[in-house]
Every structure is written in structure tokens, then in C-alpha cells.
Amino acid sequence: MEKLESVGGVDGGAGVDGGIRYESVVIVGSGVFGLTTALSLSLHNSQYSSKTKITVIDRHPFPAPDGSSIDSSRIVRADYKDPLYASLGLAAQARWRAGTGVWDGLGSDGRYMESGYVMVMDKEDAGIPGEEELWRGREYVWKSLDNMRELLVREAGMDRDEVAKKVVRLNNEEEIRGVCGTNGGGSGVEGYVNWLSGWADAEKAMRFVRKRCEERGDIEFLVGEVVSLVEMPSGEVKGVGLKDGRKVMGELTVLAAGAWTTGLIDLEGRAVSTGQVMAYVKVTKEEEEQWKCIPVMLNITTGLFLLPPRNGICKVARHGIGYLNTQPVKLASGHKRSGPVHRSTPMTAHTTPSVSRIPAEDEVDLRRALREMLPALGDRPFESTRICWYTDTPTADFIVDYIPGSKGLFLATGGSGHAFKFLPVLGDMIVDIMLGKDPGVWKNKWRWRKLLNTVEGVMTKDGSRAGSTQLELQKLYEDEDKGISVRTSVEKSRE
After folding, report:
1. What pLDDT does residue 463 have?
2. Could you tell me if 69 and 390 are in contact, meaning their C-beta atoms sit under 8 angstroms apart?
3. Which end of the chain is more exposed for a tag (fewer CB within 10 A), N or C?
4. Which of 191, 192, 196 is nearest to 158 (CA)?
């Protein structure tokens, strides 16, 4: 992994609360990072009688049809190897369950379900390429288990006997099948279940946050594709230029466009857009009633996971190293660059209408996961498939910081496939860092980092991802069209 050095700085003037104050803030992106930042800035306006003008821009009317968080479901867990994220996950879960103020009701009306979370692994001789990747996965499971047992006592105030009933180690396949509740389905050979984690209806939750933003009265929403930054000769950024010729000016510009951020600013070596495969299966009302309370299942070795059915749909997916779509890109910010650069950018059915499927071998993998985890659905046709685009960083830490050399430019991205669960706490943390009010560990953990040596690419290696090789998605499609089979999955490496 490349070595990184912390850098950074702040702009703006002094505010009445002792923090930095801006007259106007332009936020690019209305996903998890963008909407929560806007909402928290608006709350800051009310708390400190500030009058910051807040403008949110997205390339699509809300909800964006290919936004990563506009989906049927997302896992909501506090189960992390890193105790800092585990603690933050507990804080987020508290608001999912019983939020107050603008977060009152977030977890109601089917937006949050606490049906449990099963995290398992395969046996040590599973044939996974790269002993290091297998070791990371095992470490991730057991450290997550230890963190949950400790933090639920220390931070959630539970006694150890109570925790022992809620967070249970699973020592063999029989014990795993016993908690999964899918008529003999399961995955892996050991792991644990946490009955205090669960999942959320992602699109419903995002609609909830959007409505809260609209109710504030001081947040303006615009639709337009950002193609440039309004940069002064001094290098200071004063807003953005849209494809239709409009300019939206602001004292501070926040880039929070998810996987599309890599096409706005040069994040080489710091973040990369990767595609993750998902598939959806129709279920009957009777089947949904039978399985709606099963736990989320994730096999850390393969990256394959299954969520309980809701609204007539059951989702199966893979959390892995992901695909690349490297294309020539003319960055919105031209500083230190001339002409296009090559970066991985999202390729969806909306950006590329000819692409309306996932790779064939991924369909085989997801089919295998269904047969293993919920056998009754094993042979049912997929109703639809999708590639969801992450913004990955090497350590899975977010990037929330001012960008050196670009006064007036702030970055909030790098969700690395796990930011959604922090929906009710993330915006407050972003705004605290933005306004210079958070001197704590997160400011350092999420800092912009200077590369100390040249790197070829970025892969998230925090132990939560399956796989060891990133493939180019377009090349894979071309090979499929030619009848060339490419072994892409972790599962196929076992054969």
C-alpha cells in the first residue's frame, strides 16, 4: 500500500460560535454526503443565527436513478474491525432507532429493520488467491466480534450477560444455518451473529433526508451537470460551471458527488470509482412474510451477501474489490493538469444505455449465493441486475477535508461502500470539520493525504473486501461478446 502524508488547511472567516463562517456554500451531489452536509449546515444556521446560503446541485432530479444510495437496501451495522468506526456505528444506530429533532422518525415506516447481521468466513484452505487477503478477512471478523462485545458494554451500557445473548459466536455450519432461518440455508464455516444490527431501505431513507432538507427553507436545489470549477487566477475556487453554461457561485464549494467525484478533481492514488454487482429476485407476499425477519448474511471470504426481502424484492450482491471503467476524463478542476487524464468513472445503464446487465460470470456467482443462503430462491430468475459504484480509498477511510492549493474547495467523499449506515451522524461530522470545530480523531483520520510515492491504482484493503484483482468492466463485456470466458470471481478461484 502506498504511503500517505497528512496535509490540509482551512479557509473562511470567523463565526459567532468561534468556528469558520461562510456566506454561501455550493454542494455538488445530493447523495449521502451531499444531503447530510446540507442538512447539518442548515441546522448550524439555526443554532448560531447564521445566514449561510446553501445550494445543492445534482446532475439528475432527485432521486438520481443511478445514485449508489438509491437502492432497495443497505446494511446498517456497528460491526467493524476498527473500534472507531464501530463506535460511530453505534451512535448512528441510536439515531436509526430513536432519533430526535430532524432525525425523529428516520427508522420508522419500514426505513430501518433490526433483524440481525451474520458475518462468516470460509475455511482456511478455501483456495482463495493470496494468503494475505484470506488472513485480512479472518482478522476482520474476529476483531469485529471483540469490538462489539466490548463497546456494547462500555458505550451502550449493556451488561455482559445481555451482550452474550445478542452477539453470539458461530462455531460451525450447523450453528450458522440455525440462526439464518432460511430452511437450511447459510454460508461459511464460522463467524458470529449480532442481533443488534440490521438494514435500511436506502431509497426511503434518502427521501426522508431530502424532505427534511426541503422543509428547512434555506437550502436551494438545482439540477445540472457540473463540468468545471470557477477558479480565480490565484487558484481560489468560487463556485462551479454547469454544462448548460450557468455558473453557480459560492464562497465554499463542496465536492460530494460520490463515484462521480473522480471526474471532478484529481484523486489519483487517493480514491477510485469501482463497480459492484447486485441482483434482485421477486418474492411472493407469503415468502416475504416468511423471510422478512431473517438476518443479513455476509460471507467475508467471498464478499457475497443477502438481505431480507421487502416490497416483493430480495437482493443478493457482492462487496468486493470491484470493477474499473478507465476512460479519458477532462477534470472539472484543471489545476496542475492540461488535457484529459485516465480515470475510472461510473458506467451505468443511464450513462451508457447499451450496458444493462452485469457480467455473466457474476450472475453465476450471485446465483450460487442464492442457492447457498436462501435455497428456495436458488433457481428463480433475476428480476433485474445492477452495478453500484463505490468511491474506494486504500484504507476505506473517507476523505473530508480542504484541498491544498485550492482555496475555497472542500471534499466530502470516499465512502468506500460503507458510508450509508452513518447517514444520521455523518453530516454533523462533515460540518464540524468544515467549520474547524472538530480537533478530534476524525479530522485526522479523514484528512486529505499527500502521496509520498507514485502508485498505479487504489484497492480497499481493510479486510472487508473479497478478491485481489481489479478488472476493466468494458474489456470484460467485450470479451463476453466474443465468447471469451474470464475467471473474475473469488468463488471461481476455488475450482
Report:
1. 67
2. no
3. C
4. 196
> Which residue, chain included where needed, has cell 470539520?
433
pLDDT digits (tens, 9 = 90+) for 137-166: 899 999 999 999 999 999 999 999 999 999
| Residue 119: all three cell numbers together | 458475518
State the DSSP code for 360: H
Q: List the CATH code of the domain at 4-451.
A: 3.50.50.60
Number of helical H runs and strand E runs in the chain: 11, 26
10 Å Cβ neighbour count for 269? 20
Burial (0-12, 13-18, 19+ Cβ within 10 Å), 364: middle
The residue behind cell 412474510 is 289
Query: Nearest-CA neighbor of 266 among 207, 192, 330?
Result: 330
pLDDT in tens, 316-338: 999 998 999 999 888 887 555 55
DSSP structural state of residue 27: E
Low-confidence ranges of the chain (pLDDT < 70): 1-18, 124-134, 334-339, 439, 452-458, 463, 467-468, 486-495
Residue with cell 463565526: 15
Terminus-to-terminus CA distance in the chain, angstroms?
A: 29
C-beta contacts of 127-135 below 8 A and 24+ residues apart: 127/493, 127/494, 127/495, 128/301, 128/490, 128/493, 128/494, 129/468, 129/469, 129/490, 129/493, 130/468, 133/466, 133/467, 133/468, 134/301
**pTM, two decimal places:** 0.92
Count of CA atoms in the C-beta half-sphere (13 A) of 245: 0
Burial of 47 (0-12, 13-18, 19+ CB in 10 A): exposed
Are 229 and 332 in contact by the 8 Å Cβ rule? The answer is yes
* Grid coordinates belonging to 166: 445478542
Residue from 332, 296, 334 nearest 314 by CA: 296
Q: What are phi and psi of 480, to 5 degrees?
A: -60, -45
